[in-house]
Amino acid sequence: MIVSSIMCLVWFTFAGGTAIDLTLNGGAGDQITDTGPYSQLFAIINFMLSPALVTLMSIVIVMLLLTYLVTSADSAVLIINTIAAAGDESPKGRIHIVTWGVILTLVIVSLLMISGDGLGAINTAMIIGAFPFSVVMALMGVLLLKALICDGLRKNENNGG
Question: Least enclosed by CB within 10 Å: which of 14, 19, 49, 129?
């Protein structure tokens, strides 16, 4: 988790700050902003580096992204399996891990192939999936405020106030 956080920090520092500076100071013109949001990092390295280094850096970036995505998918499968198996860590749970991994892979592949805008389909699916959790988080916030108010009232009653 710490490595991925550091990777994100380096990523946003390099890509975000450099793109803003090159665009605002006119060094890059519109080379970075004219590309789509998914290819702006590659536009930055195309502008900043020589062609040989661009190829090398592109390979490194793709490998880091794949490592991050595989690790995230592995964590998701582990969590789904732990919930579905009620915490059972016996060797018979391995078939469940493989099953959930295949299901997750098939869902992702189908969302990518569903239309010309596969990433848009994945974004929409993520928003739809996160909506119920957002409602739960809002209710938890309301209940936290209620608990704080009740604790304050209880403290006042105990102090004779």
Answer: 129
3-state secondary structure of 45: helix
Q: Which of 94, 124, 92, 131 is nearest to 107 (CA)?
A: 124
Residues 82-119 pLDDT 10s: 777 777 666 666 777 788 888 888 887 777 777 666 66
Identify whether 129 is part of a domain: yes
Distance CA(161)–CA(158), nearest Å, equals: 7
What value does the mean pLDDT take over residues 114-140? 78
**Which residue range forms the structural domain that includes residue 124?**
120-161
Interatomic CA distance for residues 38 and 22, integer angstroms: 18
Structure tokens at 156: 């006042």
